[in-house]
């Protein structure tokens, strides 16, 4: 056993060679050299060696700490105990601090090199504080237009319009029965459904664009923007209302049924599908209006707005849940307009690509 450990140490040490200010990392798959000389070496003041990083697969990734090497190799080891001893020995030999896993899979090392050259970007807010969200970037935030007309309604006249209208109305009854006045959970459930149509429509238009070698008029982007915006609503309300296990199970069931039903409906009649979403958004406006009434009556606590909502909608730091519901309702009104508009385009016998999409319509 001791001979095996010695041989493994020898193998690990042989992977890292230092000669004339040049640090080389070797592996059976990749060889990478990174030179630190002259002004670069002076600027860095000190160059730390690559250190092994444990992975669940039992491999060791050798990474360059400071010289910016973009390649990493793997060496198979017999077990984590051997790796820990190797790591301590390497730290003793080279005076470097071994990496420590904080339990979340992240290491405390700075400047870990990526084999693919893809690393996390560090962004800051206008006040200089670090941007902590990875699901959206500062340039994707916006101020919601809360002055939009909330009372617009498309009166159903054709058979497809009436079918879309009563389909949505029939879905409201079981929702009212299940959630009643629990508007936080109701909003969360609503967003898990509302985020589906934009993704389905965008996906189908994307495939159509590829098949026919044609542009979409921006509608792919517009519908995917809608889906992402609805998903951000869900991420926000997740901070306000924690779903119970049976509500999570209900989400899985409803999403599975609705996704396939809407996919089939869009394939058969896009004008019906968009009209139905337009009516669905009208119901969402009604639900959020009732939510605001309950907040104003004091039946629901007007807690501080979640941090993710403040950053996403550029809200003031002292914003509350009422402010969040107000901007979400405005978003739903914009989605209502976009989908009724898309349905009208089809009713006039035209394709969506023939009318420029309302990209960025918030």
From TrEMBL:
This protein's name: Ubiquinol oxidase
Membrane topology, record value: Multi-pass membrane protein
Main enzyme class: oxidoreductase
Cofactor: Fe cation
Family under the similarity heading: Belongs to the alternative oxidase family.
E.C. designation(s): 1.10.3.11
Region (Disordered): 85-113
